[in-house]
Amino acid sequence: xxxxxxxxxxxxxxxGFAGRMILRSAPxxxxxxxxxxxxxxxxxxxxxxxxxxxxxxxxxxxxxEASLILGISPTANKIRIKEAHxxxxxxxxxxxxxxxxxxxxxxxxxxxxxxxx
Length: 117
Description:
CATH superfamily of the largest domain: DnaJ domain
CATH class of the largest domain: Mainly Alpha
Helix content: over 70%
Number of domains: 2
Structural class: mainly alpha
Number of strands: 0
CATH topology of the largest domain: Helix Hairpins
Largest sheet: none
């Protein structure tokens, strides 16, 4: 019985020592991993094929910005504007956990595009 306790203790010591060595080598593993990541392109276009607009909002709404927010062409008709607004508001409405600021910008974009037509 005493010999099995000694073997178990030596086994735990070996596991502890191995874990300590792994943790000590972790910073070098992290730097190597970061070097590997630097070789890959990190923009959203290449990784996800995303079509989302990169950048913040302009101080004053423009036709270009309104069409980017709604995801339509700048020459879209009123029906297309209404459909795009409805689709985007369903996903971003504050009552469903969306941002009130984004909902306001979406509404502003719809109003801007409606006033142009």
